[in-house]
Amino acid sequence: MRLLHVVTLVSDDGLFGGPPSVAVAQAQELAARGHDVTLMSLWRGSGPAPDRIGAVRLRTRPARALLPGRGCIGLLHPLLVRDLWRAVRAADVVHVHAGRDLVSLTALAVAALRRVPCVVQTHGMVEPRTALPVRLFDLPYLPLLRRARACCVLTERERRLVATVLGAGGPPLRIVPNGIRPRPPGPAPRRPRDPHVLFLARLHPRKRPEAFVEMAALVHREVPGARFTLYGPDDGSLAAVRRLIAAGPADVVRYGGALDPAEAHEAYRTAAVHVLPSVDEPFGMTLIEALAAGTPVVCTDTCGIADELSRRGAALVTDGSPAAMAAAVRRLLGDPELCARMARAGRRVVEDVYSIGAVVDRLEEIYRGGAADEPPARAITPLPTGSRPARNPAT
Question: How much is the pTM?
Fold first, then answer.
């Protein structure tokens, strides 16, 4: 099949979070199976964009802010519209990794005008919102989403949220988790690692990097040899993080900047624990990446895959408070056998549930229109006020 994947932004600092890495992983696996795959996006980096990522053609235009002050939502390049018009015509299926942004809106509109089958994947970025700018954006956006052949969501929770947004008449909602290709397992038995605790994500209020720094100070009181590093591009929280680091104990917590994929894998591979403090995280791709590297993880109970990981013994799940996360980290740092068991369980869950092979099997069915229907989505019951840590999700 001739497949066109569209994602809003590819950058060398990972500013757009998980969707680009998911799109690349899917496109590479599809190309390995003999499909003709092109990935199209905006580009932001220190140099020119590559022409290919492995066997996948990458077609980009420099990211320009057509709506200043709106972050990735307002990015576009006029020539990308022309590129999409030409590329969609040659595709059998267009797969849009869709958020509420100008690139996604443009790709959906071009696919509709060209009458080419379109599959959308929302990555937790299409949830009920009441802000006036979002409601205005949704006037053209939601009708285009409803025209898709299918909408891929990460979890049952996201499926219910998207069903609420789309209402009656929307496309079939298919649960398709993110997937990765695990590298060969490390040596057995697992060697104990230095007490280094990792945060690897965008520094955005939703990711709660400040909570990681507060947790680190609590752990340091009882485990003075532990060290903590935050990696990721600044997305609004770096100034607050730096203030907390400066106010805490010296040489315990540091910010290491953004990492490319190879550097990120090395960070996972050498860390003792990876902590993701996010609240209402739609999926938690960094958890899967850490587990694939044999690193135990700590997350919150509102992470989209927390129940699955906890049920399989692959994560310690907390309420997201710094105290609860600190207790989980201290437990892991003090129990090498627990770390080894969780590393084995994490490897199994990645291979069984979150391998890119299983994900692309599902996508091929959807592209051909042959995937079985999911059961009807249930309505969302709002949580009581104060039942979870404060959050500030992106639009």
Answer: 0.75
